[in-house]
Amino acid sequence: MTNYETFATIYDSVMDESLYQKWTDFSLRHLPINNDRNKLLELACGTGIQSIYFSEAGFDVTGLDLSAEMLAIAKKRSHAKNLDISFVEGDMRDLSQLPKFDMVTCYSDSICYLKDEVEVGDVFKEVYAILESDGAFIFDVHSTFQTDQVFPGYSYHENAEDFAFLWDTYADEPPHSVVHELTFFVKDKTGSFKRFDEVHEERTYEILTYDVLLEQAGFKTIEVYADFEDKKPEATSKRWFFVARK
């Protein structure tokens, strides 16, 4: 494998895989599947694990991501399972070259990686434009409780025989924002360890801000849930789910 493939494999290995089934289950409760309307676009699909879950659940899936390297891994995964999934390299801030979809998802707090609420609003408008009539858009974001109370000072370290992983999170300057500093040490074929460093900046907003941006994009109904369940957010909810319909 190339260094990037090795890195992505390690990155996936420290991800809680049970979350993919939870995202799938939440989607199935809010995105009814039928033979005529099952075209789903997954934004920020990464290495394709969630796209595969969606495909196996019965959706006609297209995955979009900025990273060609991630998409190469996603394609290998889907081919290994003999699944017909389209993977497209692209930016969720410009979906003008894509066809219409019945539903769009953006999970794993990918919206939180956009730099400001202007970009968030732009993405909402792009999604609205490519949705069929009565189409649905589902995404999740960190709650303000998560960014303000849970994440700052968070530290996770893992040591295995062929890799080590360090993850530390700090509060950032903008409201409800954090910086994740990730360091991987991955053993290569010579037995030496190669270091990979990444810095992830995330920012969230109040629920009202997301509601207003969705309304400005044109969505007519908006429902908000928390923590993978069909329940309303509470003060200590960590992840908010938005279900917006065109």
Automatic annotation (TrEMBL):
Looking up InterPro entries in the UniProt record yields:
Methyltransf_25 (IPR041698), SAM-dependent_MTases_sf (IPR029063)
Question: Which named protein is this?
Answer: Class I SAM-dependent methyltransferase
The keyword Transferase is assigned to this record = yes
GO annotations under biological process?
methylation
Please name the Pfam families in this protein's record. Methyltransf_25
Q: What is the lineage of its organism?
A: Bacteria, Bacillati, Bacillota, Bacilli, Lactobacillales
Q: Name one GO molecular function term.
A: methyltransferase activity
Q: Which intervals of the chain form a coiled coil?
A: none
Q: Look up the signal peptide feature and give its range.
A: none
Q: Which UniProt keywords apply?
A: Methyltransferase, Transferase
Q: Where is each Methyltransferase domain found?
A: 41-135
